[in-house]
Specification:
Length: 169
């Protein structure tokens, strides 16, 4: 059972956080950028000498990174607490034994991996949102297409990135 808890913390939590970030922040970024393109405001930024990518991507990327980190810590802690309560209530395993088992099975490299993967996923989501938002076109329907493409593209990209991360780690 502890190996299941280990796998949940190491694999499932980062992927779920990546999908949450894609669904909330990634789609919002794509819609914002597609709206700027559709309204011509992106052209106004270029004419004003402002780098539109840096201007529209920088702050949301920092927010996605910090949100990914915070969500990973929160969901990981909730998973461990839930696992401990379930083992204690169902199997009579004392919380101290669960904590000791997790301490022995989780190493520093594992914790670094758990915290690094969602940050990498946030970058992938931000890049996907930027590409989809900037290539949405000038019609209002392009905004909706950008949102849909961002969600599909980001989730589709997260899974192979996770696989590559696991294989290279």
């Amino acid at each position: 059972v502890l190996s299941l808890g280990y796998r949940v913390v190491i694999e499932l939590v980062p992927i779920l956080v990546g999908i949450l970030v894609a669904g909330r922040a990634g789609v919002a970024l794509a819609v914002r950028q597609a709206g700027l393109v559709a309204s011509g405001e992106m052209d106004g930024l270029v004419v004003s000498g402002v780098d539109p990518i840096r201007f529209t991507l920088g702050p949301p990327l920092l927010a996605m990174l910090s949100m990914s980190f915070a969500l990973t810590v929160w969901v990981g802690l909730c998973s461990v607490v839930t696992l401990t309560a379930w083992l204690w209530g169902r199997a009579g395993v004392p919380p101290s034994a669960v904590a000791e088992g997790l301490r022995q099975s989780l190493h520093l490299e594992d914790l670094v991996q758990v915290l690094a993967k969602p940050l990498l996923f946030a970058v992938v989501v931000a890049l996907s949102a930027t590409v989809c938002g900037l290539t949405a076109g000038r019609d209002p329907q392009g905004v909706a297409r950008a949102a849909t493409r961002t969600m599909i593209g980001a989730v589709t990209a997260i899974l192979p990135v996770d696989l590559a991360f696991v294989l290279l780690w």
